Structures are given as C-alpha cells and as structure tokens.
Amino acid sequence: MQLKIATTGNATVFDEDIEQVILPWESGSVTLYAKSIPAIVKLVPWIIQVKTKNGWVQKFSISKGIALVDTSNIKITVSMVTEKPLAKLVELRWTLHLLELKLQKVRTFWSVEEISRLIWEVEKVKADIQLAQG
Fold first, then answer.
1. Is 67 exposed, middle or buried (CB count within 10 Å of its CB: 0-12, 13-18, 19+)?
2. How far apart are the first and last CA of the chain?
3. 12 CB contacts (<8 Å, ≥6 apart)?
4. Residue 84, CA distances (Å) to 4, 64, 87 in order
5. Residues 13, 23: Cα–Cα separation, whole Å
6. Dihedrals φ, ψ of 107, to 5°?
7. Which of 30, 84, 106, 123 has its CA 20 to 30 A from that of 47?
8. pLDDT (tens digit, 9 = 90+) per residue, 63-90?
C-alpha cells in the first residue's frame, strides 16, 4: 500500500510503500492495511504511526487534516507535520501552558472559529510532546 503525507503547502513529507498506518481521528485511532475499504478520514492532531515494508516504525505529529483511502493508496494532507519536534520537551510543555492560558482568556472575546483554531494549535503541541517523549 502506498502512503503519501503532504502539507497544504504542497510539501511531501513521506511517500513510500508501507505495511500499515495508524491514523488519529475523532473516535480514537484507526489502523489501515493493504486493501483497506475506501474511505475519507477526518484526522485530528496527534501521532501517525507508519510501519514500512522493512519493518521500521516511523512516527509523525500532525495537525488536523484529511486522509483519502482507496484499496492501494492513502493520501494524507495536513496543515503541519513534524517527524522530530523542533523544540525540547521543556519548551513544548511551556508553549502548551501558554496556549492553554490564552485559551482560557479568549473564550469570551473571540469568535468560534478563532477559538477552534487555538484549540487545534493546543492539540498539535500536545502531539509534539507525545512525539518527543517517544
């Protein structure tokens, strides 16, 4: 099964033949194998786990996105994807703390869309922390 992970900015991050992939979605996670049932999966910020043909497991932290699945291909498009966090774990936790404080303050002044965008940002930082912890 061919997996392609790309960003909305048209940067391809991963494009290989794989054995399986575990995707985060609103109801938890879903594991896809070769010849999966065609589907469209709404992805949430968390970790994608990929098992390649040679047995290696690669992990990616993603923002929200979408996965288009057919029997032989999975095409994932996300706003942001990280293979290795750019910041140290302490910095990521501090960023998460600041974002959560900001979220508490803005709930009464911002629009639903702005709050939703901030919540997704918080979730992406949580995914980066999970990735950094291994």
1. buried
2. 25
3. 4, 5, 6
4. 18, 17, 9
5. 16
6. -55, -30
7. 106
8. 999 999 998 999 999 998 998 877 788 8
Tokens for 86? 């750019």
User: From start to end of the chain, where are the E strands?
Assistant: 2-7, 12-25, 28-33, 39-43, 46-52, 57-62, 65-69, 73-78, 81-82
Cβ atoms within 10 A of the Cβ of 44, count?
A: 20
Cα distance between residue 89 and residue 112, in whole Å? 30
- CA–CA separation, 84 and 64 (whole Å): 17
Q: What is the pTM of this model?
A: 0.78
State which H helix or E strand residue 103 sits in: helix 89-106
CB 4 within 8 A of CB 74: yes
